[in-house]
Design goal:
Helix 2 (28-38) packs antiparallel against helix 3 (65-75) and helix 11 runs parallel beside helix 12 (348-357). Strands 7, 8, 9, 10, 11 and 12 form a 6-stranded antiparallel sheet that branches. A 4-stranded antiparallel sheet has the order 1-6-2-3, covered by helices on one side. The chain contains 13 helices and 18 strands. The two termini are 40 Å apart. The radius of gyration is 25 Å and the shape is elongated. By secondary structure, the chain is of the alpha+beta class.
Length: 383
């Protein structure tokens, strides 16, 4: 679960990480009042859960109350990368001497957390890695011991900090690790971490992503699972209500599978044959007909979808159940969107028979099915 910047900064404050003075506003009048209380130029930042917010015009600076009112009016209700701005964070404008990057995330290949630091902040970490790879410092964290204070100092030293700056920044990095532990975080990031002209070191931005699977422990944020519509599409919200893992993409081939690994492999196979997936949807193991029916309804509600590729590997999931769900959903929705099915495993023959009697072909391999789905998608796009 992604937190908004202001929420992440609230967490930072609890862990005594310095952040700029500021508050959230939902109206231009509130933005003006906050600016008046700060008593100096401010940054007005759209609160949206998308990357590249600054480059998209979501961060602007106001020198006085009139500008604050004008900028807040422009941002509130506007869209940043298709996401409506409902709140802005109004905070003091910092006098920047140097920008740094600090973060901790999961290295899935090493199967442990890793710290990432750079003397170049203010840009995406991917951009830093591409243009200045020598300036990215990584350090694996021992999962049994956690990040030790001396390790934090070593990381910070490698990005060129010395003396007081080294001590303060190493302390901030150690506190980021405490946040990771306390909040089951998949990512915690400060970009940029700023050294001001007065010599202060402040987290100008904050990013925090909590593992959805740990929200039962994170009671503070459990209610936030009922997210604002600005974060997710209508289909993603509907899927979340039904307990389905669904992520919307920008292609034309709907994807349904049982098991996250299988769905990811299906997406890769479709891409390999030149197609573009419209979504990721995992119905999970042991899914029943009702679950498959809900999955198909969600995928088919996307007007971009030209064909649906359903990939079922029956283990604890019964193929005949999945077949019944597919048929029932097609009959209720009365869709003309073609379905391509690959089905193997428990009660496979029974499932195939149900689908074939309904006029739906079932293919033997994932490769065949992916290729067929891509071909249908291209034919329908051209017609």
């Amino acid at each position: 679960m992604k937190l908004y910047e202001y929420q992440a900064k609230d967490v930072f404050k609890k862990h005594r990480i310095p952040v700029p003075r500021g508050q959230v506003a939902e109206t231009p009048e509130e933005a003006v009042e906050i600016t008046r209380n700060i008593g100096k130029p401010v940054a007005i930042k759209a609160q949206v859960l998308v990357g590249g917010r600054g480059k998209a015009g979501g961060i602007k600076f106001a020198e006085n109350l009139e500008q604050a009112a004008e900028i807040a009016s422009q941002l509130l209700g506007s869209k940043i990368k298709g996401v409506e701005v409902k709140k802005v964070l109004v905070e003091e404008k910092l006098e920047i001497e140097k920008e740094l990057y600090l973060g901790i995330t999961v290295d899935r290949f090493a199967r442990r957390y890793v710290t990432i630091a750079s003397s170049r902040g203010g840009m995406d970490i991917e951009e830093i890695a591409e243009k200045h790879p020598e300036e990215i410092i990584k350090h694996d964290i021992n999962p049994l011991l956690g990040l030790q204070n001396f390790e934090a100092r070593e990381v910070v030293k490698k990005i060129g900090l010395k003396g007081k700056d080294l001590i303060i920044t190493a302390d901030i990095l150690s506190k980021l690790w405490k946040i990771v532990e306390s909040y089951d975080a998949e990512l915690v990031e400060i970009n940029p971490l700023i050294k001001t002209k007065d010599g202060e070191i402040i987290a100008a931005d904050a990013r925090l992503i909590i593992d959805d699977n740990a929200l039962f422990r994170q009671l503070e944020f459990k209610k936030a699972m009922k997210v604002e519509k600005g974060e997710l599409s209508e289909r993603e919200l509907k899927a979340r209500e039904k307990g389905l893992a669904y992520v919307e993409l920008d292609g034309k081939i709907g994807i349904i599978g049982n098991g996250a690994g299988l769905v990811m492999a299906t997406l890769d196979m479709v891409s390999l044959y030149g197609g573009k997936p419209a979504n990721f949807l995992d119905v999970g193991g042991g899914a029943d007909p009702e679950r498959m029916e809900e999955a198909l309804k969600i995928v088919l509600s996307n007007p971009r979808v030209k064909v649906v590729f359903i990939n079922i590997l029956g283990g604890i999931t019964r193929c005949d159940w999945m077949a019944k769900g597919i048929i029932e959903a097609r009959e209720k929705i009365k869709t003309k969107v073609p379905l391509v099915v690959r089905m193997v495993g428990t009660l496979e023959e029974e499932g195939r028979k149900i689908l074939q009697e309904a006029g739906i072909d079932v293919l033997d391999s994932m490769e065949e099915a992916a290729k067929r789905a891509v071909e249908i998608s291209k034919q329908l796009t051209r017609s």
